Amino acid sequence: MFQYAQLNQEKICVGISQLSGKVDAENMILINEDAEVLGMQYNNGIWEKLAQLEPNAASPSELEQMDTQQMDTQQIMQAFTDVELRNLEIQQRQELLAQQIANIELAMLGGNT
Fold first, then answer.
1. Alpha-carbon distance 41 to 106, whole Å?
2. DSSP H or E stretch at residue 100
3. CA-closest candidate to residue 38, choices 64, 4, 74, 78
4. DSSP state of 65
5. Of 24, 37, 67, 79, most Cβ neighbours within 10 A?
């Protein structure tokens, strides 16, 4: 397994990925398994701790935004699944109605049902 730090545009580690193969991407930096670089900035091959800044109450942090986006994505996927299930139910009802119509037509023509 290969462990990579995921960097944002400011070269700050915003995630850690364990991958089965090597990756060649500017925002993915190969790290040791015991490396604790989350929230650190990568500059010229060196990990640097960032000074703690007072969070701005008016704007959510990047991690909060990512959490919100993840929740939004999950809600969208759930809604999509619900729509797909509803479509399957409708399709099953249409098939049942088609079979019932065919049975009625056969009965009207004197066939056995």
1. 75
2. helix 62-108
3. 4
4. H
5. 37
Q: Give just the sign of the alpha carbon dihedral 20, 21, 27, 29.
A: positive
Residue type at position 12: I
Place of tokens 């939004």: 72
- Alpha-carbon gap, residue 72 to 80, rounded angstroms: 12
Edge-to-edge, what's the strand order for the sheet holding 2-7?
13-19, 2-7, 28-31
CB 31 within 8 A of CB 45: no
End-to-end Cα separation, the chain, in angstroms:
62
Partners of 15 in the β-ladder: 6
13-36 residue pLDDT tens = 999 998 999 989 999 999 998 889
pTM, full prediction: 0.46
Positive or negative, the CA dihedral 28, 34, 35, 38 is positive
Give residue limits of the domains in the chain.
1-42, 60-113
